[in-house]
Amino acid sequence: MDSFEVSRRQKNEVEILEIKGYLDAHTAPSLENAIQELIDSDTYQIVINFRDLAYISSAGLGVLMGFIENIREHGGDIKLCEMNEKIYRVFDLLGFPKIYDITEKEEDAVQKFNR
Amino acid sequence: MKNKKQTYHLKIPGKTENLELIRTFVSRLAQMSGFDEDDIYKIELAVDEACANVIKHAYEGKGKKEIDLLLEIDYKKLTIIVTDEGVGFDVNNILKRDMKEYLGQMKVGGLGIHLIMSLMDDVKLKSKPGEKTEVRMTKYLVKDGKIKSKQVDDG
């Protein structure tokens, strides 16, 4: 089975979610739960690291869309980093680079919160 | 596969847990047809989106009905026809949506059909309220006499 995993760590008061595997309509609820947990603990500065993500469908992008308004209203943001070319293309096709900060390196995404 | 049209049929319960199996089925056949890695990824994603839409919108995630996938392969193209047993919708409502404005409103969902249209060469949607929906999408190996991807000759 294609699997999907989310793990959490912190860097300079920013929460990093590392996502791994295949993110589709079946696995998207795992990412949704992980982000909801952060919001429940009043954590609104979030970076998602896509380094180990092999696949994404619009269900994964839909999760980000579902939270972004609430997170920004609380002064936070979801920033995205380390996407491979295939994953980035999906975001690009749907116009997401205009809405989200997408950086090559994780440290650049974290830095954007600390400016 | 030169000059011969081959068809493959998959009828599968409409559950999200089957999306992986659907992707594997489609990507393997796209690979056999001679598409390159880039096109295989696009085909796989487009079919995933079409099936996920059926599961979410037509079947409301219940998984009791089936999704019907028909793949037609010939020397110049791969066509995938995804048919549901759902209740249909007004196609014009989807196609008229302005994506920029839609994203600006940060609405969830509805992204799938726009991805399908961006990823595939030719997409036809057939649906009416109260009837089943058919998404027919084609990727060309050969277009305007030019070979787009590496072709495999099955001899």
Taken from the alpha-carbon principal axes, the silhouette of chain B is: globular
CATH superfamily of chain B: Histidine kinase-like ATPase, C-terminal domain
In which range does the helix fraction of chain A lie? 40-55%
**The CATH homology group name of chain A:** STAS domain
Number of helices of chain B: 5
Low-confidence stretches of chain B: 150-155
- CATH topology category name of chain B: Heat Shock Protein 90
Largest sheet of chain B: 5 strands, antiparallel
- Give me the oligomer status: heterodimer
Radius of gyration of chain A: 13 Å
β-strand amount of chain A:
25-35%
Radius of gyration based on Cα positions of chain B = 16 Å
The averaged pLDDT of chain B comes out at: 82
Element-level helix/strand string of chain A:
EEHEHEHEH
Shape of chain A: globular
Q: In percent, how much strand structure appears in the residues of chain B?
A: 25-35%
CATH architecture descriptor name of chain B: 2-Layer Sandwich
Q: Give me the number of helical elements of chain A.
A: 4
What order do the SSEs of chain B take from the amino end to the carboxyl end, as H and E? Answer: EHHEEHHHEEEE
Overall mean confidence score, pLDDT of chain A? 95
